[in-house]
Amino acid sequence: MGTQPQGSPDVHISPLESKLDTYLGKNPFEPTKPFGCWEKTKVFLFTVTLIAPARLLLILALVVLSALVAAVFMVGAGARWLRFWRRLGAFIVRFNLRVVLFLAGFYWVPVTDHDAAATRTGSTRIYVANHCTSMDTCKLLPLLGATVACKADLFQLPLIGWLLRLLEAVPVSRYSAEGRRASLRQIVERSKDRSRPPLLVFPQGTCTNPHALSTFAKGAFTAGEPVRPVVLHYTNTLADICYGFNSTQLWATYYPLCQFINFLSVDILAPYRPSEAERQDPKLFARNVRGVIAEQMRSRGAEVIVTDHSYHDVLIMSKTAGADYYNVLANDVYRELGLGRKTIMGLANLFQKLDKDGDGQISFSEFCDALYNEPDEQDRAAARNAYDLLDVDRSGAIGFDEFMIGISTISKASPASEAALLFFTFC
Q: Which of 154, 181, 223, 267 is disulfide-compatible with 231, CB 3.0–4.6 A?
């Protein structure tokens, strides 16, 4: 069910939202602070004075250097007697990550360890943390001496793939059932393997702003082993440097470089030992650990919203110019319309292709162009009839929510994605 925080502002209720228990809070994937005049001035000044570009070039140089180190130290790393060689290379790479963090303006990062004894023994092999920016790993991997679970696609990138292999990172595949099962098996194995680095997992699977916690996926909790929650507090007064759904990786890296100083503190909480009920139900385990992290964030004075949004909601918003669609959650759409995640993503991809100008709505001209190459008056009249079926609120434009309702209504007997393709082929 969607979440309804107290004191939420009035929002426009779309056709789909009127059928669901909608989320009425702020978008968890957007920055909480406006990109105002002062922030624009800082970006301009740091750019024209070449401070930010110089920082960026130094960071890129460190990444290349670290990748070369990884390539050298991976030679012979498969032999058992050369394991120390690989660990030395990983130590150098982690040190370079901390230098990257310094260059990005995080000069001093206070760390509070709530269970130093557990840290010394290293008995807990899985750390779970909230996720706001790509800078998270630059602090946590050196601090925890850990590796990371990350998207399998990253292993295919030049340089980055070398670094991840040296660090013994775990690839996480989201695109197939077999890939997800393989990722879960590796996470379970790492939770019991003391011969390899502990594993850092960002169970949200995506970045939110520093005042929101989206759904925790069950992967890190499937083994039923204790985990150590880690809480990242980003406390810049005027700038929110989170990696939002409508950001690019370049901007998410460049914007922090345009700050005089960035503020981050870290809490390493005591190990969370699951109850028998949590061992049997990884989703319950994940929800309860998320609650512990939320309470720690609130104890530092942060206003925190806990939502049921997930990685799939971010994907949908990114493909539909969907700043206005965060009120409806993908899980609720599945419940109400019977559309699975794969089908919803297929519709989002189709919507993105039809929305030629990228304004988040399909106009009649865009709709008509999708149906006919050179429409005559008769074609346009037929297209208008079909368009009016989808334009539920009669606004003169089709939003993604209306698009999903219309397509799912066209054919209840076949998958909605197939119905969409048939509709646009034969209407």
A: 267
